[in-house]
């Protein structure tokens, strides 16, 4: 939320609303990353906080392969399909490979989910218009 510019709103809620004062309230902050901005926010809002990290801070696990490929907008779906077919062909028999694809909008996510399913690749979306129960199905 911070990278989307919501820090002023978060600060207003915590500092100006009918929130109990720091040290009296229980405040928890969860983040997949912990850049300097979040560290500053944590020190402002949390007293005697505990920082718990899983794995190495600032890096991904060695068990995940991350790739970035630049593709023209008109070629994105066909390129994705090529990657998914190659992954399926090179995979170990019986082993399911999972792929996480990020898109810009909820509508784009729903459209891509439908398109992947129609092309034989089971897919689901995770976004704010879906309940967690539906997203986990």
From TrEMBL:
Matches recorded under InterPro entries: DEAD/DEAH_box_helicase_dom (IPR011545), P-loop_NTPase (IPR027417)
GO molecular function: ATP binding; helicase activity; RNA binding
Organism: Vitis vinifera (Grape)
Keywords of the record: ATP-binding, Helicase, Hydrolase, Nucleotide-binding, RNA-binding
Taxonomic superkingdom: Eukaryota
Gene from which this protein is expressed: RH52_1
DEAD/DEAH-box helicase domain mapped to chain residues: 1-40
Coiled coil segments of this chain: none
Gene3D superfamilies: P-loop containing nucleotide triphosphate hydrolases
Name of the protein described by the UniProt record: DEAD-box ATP-dependent RNA helicase 52
